[in-house]
Amino acid sequence: MLFESHRVPKPVLFLDYDGTLVKIFPDPELAVADDDLKNLIGELDRRFEMYLVTGRALEDIRNLIGIRVNIIALHGAVGIIGGKYRVFVEDFERYVDLCNLLEKESLIMTERYPGLRIYNKRGNLLYHYGRVSPSLLDGLFGEVREIGRVHGLSVYMGKLIIELRIPGMDKGKTISFLRNGRSSIIAGDDTTDEEAFSSNPDAVKISVGRALAGSDCVLSDPAEMRRFLRYIIQREE
Ligand SMILES: [Mg+2]
Question: Within this chain, do residues 67 and 48 fall inside the same structural domain, yes or no?
Answer without folding.
Answer: yes
